[in-house]
Design brief:
Elements (H helix, E strand, L loop, with lengths): L2 H6 L10 H13 L2 E4 L2 E4 L9 H13 L3 H12 L4
Antiparallel strand pairs: 1-2
Helix pairs in contact: 2-3, 2-4
Length: 84
């Protein structure tokens, strides 16, 4: 965990997870994905040690919603697909 994470702590979860929260969580996982650096995996977006706060929040939201890893991967792929 990064030192800023120790100060700020975890982002709070919503009281109940809506479809809109799922959309935000999928976006958080897609944008804050891991990228390999010489000192280990870092967030692609903010270069914090991976998983960063927003990635962890997104994963916790999707876990609370009961989505499997496979379902999450499908949602991320759908979001990253070109819009027609």
């Amino acid at each position: 965990m990064d030192s800023i994470d120790e100060v700020l702590g975890e982002l709070p979860l919503p009281p109940y997870v809506t479809a809109e929260d799922v959309g935000f969580a999928v976006k958080a996982l897609a944008v804050h994905a891991a990228e390999q650096w010489p000192d280990g995996p870092r967030c692609r977006n903010d270069r914090a040690p991976h998983p960063c706060r927003l990635h962890r929040w997104g994963q916790r939201v999707l876990d609370q919603r009961g989505l499997t890893d496979r379902q999450v991967q499908v949602l991320i792929a759908e979001q990253q697909a070109p819009q027609r």
